[in-house]
Amino acid sequence: MLKQRRRQLCANTRVPVTFELLLREALKTLPELPSYNHLKAECFSKFVSSETDAPEIRRQRAIFKWMCAESNNQSTNERLLTVDPEYLLLPGTTWSSFINKLQSIVISIIGEVPPDDAIFGGFSSGASTSRMRAVGHPSYKFVGEAHVTPRALSHGISVIIDAPVWIRYGNISISEVPGNLVFTVPKNAEIDRVAAKEPDLNMFMQRGIGSFIRSRLKRCGIDLRDQSRNRLLAQHGSLTGDLCTLDLASASDSITTMLCLEVLPICWYTLLSDLRSPITNIDGYEHTNEMFSSMGNGFTFELESLLFYSIARTVAYFEGISGIISVYGDDIIAPTALATSLIDVLGFLGFSTNIEKSFVSGPFRESCGGHFINGLDITPFYVRRPITTLIDLIEVLNKIRWWCDKEGEHGILCPSLESIWTFGRDQVPTQLWGGRDYGSTSSLVTYGSGSHQLVPKVIRYRGGIGSYIHRLSVLGDVPDLTSLIRPTGKYEMRKVRTWSSPRPNPFPFEVID
Length: 513
Fold this sequence. Notes:
The chain is of the alpha+beta class. Helix 4 crosses helix 11 and helix 13 packs across helix 14. The chain is built from 18 helices and 19 strands. A hairpin with a 2-residue loop joins strand 10 and strand 11. It folds into 2 domains: about 170 residues, no CATH class; about 325 residues, no CATH class.
């Protein structure tokens, strides 16, 4: 009996495979309504398992797609290098006048010269060219070997010198490397997504640049820490039709060196060019990059946001079209009347619009994960991997409840998926019922109150002098040797104090009970 109880309380306990099959069947029985049809089409669209294409095949496809983007980048670089200044990019607008205006908008946002402290960034907990993710905590990166590209070396040395604690205690050994390393992460059942591990010191300084650009964009109303504005604008556009949502294919991999040279102030271009990785190692093959920066670079997201916002504003200026413009990475929202011209200009600059995920006409809009039709939120939930453990089951059940809450009326959840949710709930120990967070995997959101939640078991260890430097450099506070945490992949039950948030809306059967 004791062994059975322990097995039941283990988060890694296998759950019946029938739940996934029953969920698929339950989706098929949903009524023929827009939100239900959208959920049917999207729910398992990103599902990856042993029965989908093999990881090696998905990886090969991703790298092939990345190399195709590089081929397009080469063509774009050649086009921008040789374009006639009098070329009419838009009716009545020459290339030279367009670029001049675009440059002025960029300068108005970030200034002509980067501040001296812009390169003082920080380390992330991800992998780098010198360290795997398992030992990627920032505390490790302040000591030992640190990689850097040749052109970034002088900048890296100045950063270390300007940080007295780092240069005094860091005991760091700097090694030059030609550039970054390719790796892939799952994207959907057919293809992975390509990213790159950056050299350590490059990443430290890239993150500083990214943080600076982010702060300057916020002054323009573009908050890269908050996707809610784009979602609200997409909802508005689906209702009124006066705003379109554009999504670009391989956007971050299509920012070319010539575009940055044309658009960025020369001091900014020189600095960012020094900090980027000019070479990408692809399984031992050293590829010279036509792109300016890839996913994994610490300023790519902010740079693409800056470029797309500035390009959209420039097109609007010459077209004489006013209205709201908002960006979040490559998610662009602009006046519908601007769409055709903006898509054409982006195409000339090397960016391909993803037609399947861009919406100019009709009642549907999508941006930053929010899906809307005629103002109605029809955002689906996704099942991305097999539902095999208790953690997986709780995650999906909470997603189902979240979706039913969106579809509900008068404070009662939509009962369309009530039966499959109830079946899954009965597989979860009652101690874990009563959660309040739809995004949680530690407790199941129910109408009643709960007593426990799952807490990951971790290994705590000391980070030594690296923790001291990391704490001081990041927080600017009294340093201490903070403990580091490494997850074990296992969980344990822990008693919960009183939930601070109110009860969620109930399913009909929960009210009756």
